[in-house]
Amino acid sequence: MKKQNINAGRQRGVVLIITLIALVAMTLAAIALIRSVDTGNVVAGNMAFKQGAVLAGDSGTEAAINWLSAIAGVAASQADIPSSGYYATSQETLDMTGNSGDLTRPRVDWDKDNCGGLAVPACIEPSPLIAANAAGYEARYVIHRLCPAAGLANNCASTATTVAGTSSGAKDYTTKGGLSGEVQVEYYRITTRVRGPRNTTSFVETIVFF
Which residue(s) pair with 205 in the sheet? Predict the structure, then answer.
């Protein structure tokens, strides 16, 4: 009788150990499931913010195109207009995002804080702020004429386009106004920076010609 009681006690001990192991395993599985769901929600949220930033970037680029269309190809495009974020040269050494860490390269003063007070060679001015939309995204842009020097177009990145003869509403394509035929028109690079909720930052670059 005593031996039977000892065996029953051992069996209850084994069952308790197995139960504890099963409980620990179920707890770990539940934690893993919760973490998986949380990670999925974070990824989905980040993708939504990213998509919102891209859409806001498109709006900023459209504003830049509207502004640029008034001066593209005419004498006004041959000089910098910093107050509007326009530059008549390509500024190839410019650190557009400021992420290079290279203080020998000029930067864009996106946050209007004198490039964070860094001792960079130049801190160029972007466009005035495009106010935040309903989703909280705001934008600024910088336009570069893809030419190595200001003034008349010379060795610029360009493409050929056909123009009609001069009329009262025709643009002055530098020295070829009044002639019909094929002329070279410059390319312009528009870089738009968008900032939104959760410090979402996105850059959109577009090449255009008129």
Answer: 191
CB 132 within 8 A of CB 120: no
Question: Which phi and psi (to 5°) does residue 16 adopt?
Answer: -65, -45
Query: What global pTM score does this model have?
Result: 0.72
Instruction: pLDDT tens for the chain, 210 residues: list them.
Output: 556 666 777 777 888 888 899 999 999 988 888 888 888 887 887 777 777 777 778 888 999 999 999 999 899 999 999 999 999 999 999 999 998 989 999 999 999 999 999 999 999 999 999 988 888 899 999 999 999 999 988 888 877 777 665 554 445 544 444 556 777 788 999 999 999 888 888 899 999 998
Q: What Å distances lie between residue 145 and 46, 62, 85, 90, 182, CA to CA?
A: 34, 17, 11, 6, 20
